[in-house]
Amino acid sequence: MNKLGIIISGIVKNNPTFVLLLGMCPTLGTTTSAVNGAGMGAATMAVLIMSNIVISLVKSIIPSKVRIPAYIVIIAAFVTIVELCMKAWLPDLYATLGVFIPLIVVNCIILGRAEGFAAKNGVVDSALDGVGIGLGFTLSLTLVGAVREVLGSGSVFGWRFIEGDGMLIFVLAPGAFLVLGYIMVMFNKLVAKTK
Amino acid sequence: MKNTLLNMILVLGGISTIASAGVGYVYRITEEPIAAAVEANKTAALGDVLPDFDAIVPLESTLDGIPVTVHTATAGGSVVGYAVETATTMGFSGEFRLMVGFAPDGKVLAVKVLQHAETPGLGSKMVDAGNPLIASFEGRNPSDMRMAVRKDGGEVDALTAATITSRAYVDAIARAFAAMLEARGSALNSPFGEALGGGENVVLEAREGASENLTNDAKQTDNE
After folding, report:
1. pLDDT tens digits, residue range A6-31?
2. Could you give the ipTM of this predicted complex?
3. Which has the closest alpha carbon to B34: A84, A190, A93, A18?
């Protein structure tokens, strides 16, 4: 697979949110606005790239029976590092995403890519896979967040164009399922057409 | 590598050690910026809720088991306001903390949310400038108003679809007011107290009012 192909595949063919359906908990939980979705996507992408690189480096020395605990320790360390950095240098973003950041540890996307890609491929390809899947996740979360923000709060990226309350249900959990479902249908329809 | 017990122990132990060392290192380099960010947040909130001051004295106390800090701000030796760091445990998602600024006569100057985990888009609207909750309090003295949301027969406009958050907000401000009166009362008994005005009986009366409202609020159990 060529290098650009790995990145594009992470965004379209293997899009973690709309195709692989991984990491649904943060997708539904943090996409109340476009900025929150983008922030969560970026934090996940940072962890994903670092864990993919390290896991592809150490894959040959890990006995197969303990590979999952080993991956989880590596992922948890990177998540903690990202959390501390965010607390220190992006306190506003941390204030809105705080509770979801530690949950990146158990995000299926990260362990899924560690087991499914990084454990079988070289360092460069694994890093690129992290970039691709990370971008796919970030773009998907930003899209879901933007749609929910427009419908639920009448604003997008914090820029308000409708006064008063929007349709509150889209800010709440049921709206997350509705928006995610409709975008998923449209995404897969479009991707199927272009094939 | 082969799946022998020794290999597994060595590899897992080694990875854990390196991971811990990495996290420990990052913790050390982020410790200062994190403390600075928390402090900056607090300082910014103090500046937002108080008029200009040149000295500030914090006084820590506990009301109903919740820590409350009263910052008494002075300019040129006379008190210009009180900023109270207050909290409530009645929020929709647990505890949240507010900074409430009071004028020396007890009027609410401004309210700032320090930390919260309320539902985004609903309870989180308490952070926005000019929301109904802040508008209900600003420029008014809590002892002159019925401290409850309108649904409970009070005078506070609640946030749309966030009654529990609004009740908790009222609870936090009532606690801040009680703590402020207590701090002001103890200052009145000190040699510097004369310039402050007011009297002991006012303090007691208002405190009773505040705690009454607290119990009223606690009894309400509606859904948000």
Report:
1. 888 888 888 888 888 888 888 888 88
2. 0.77
3. A84
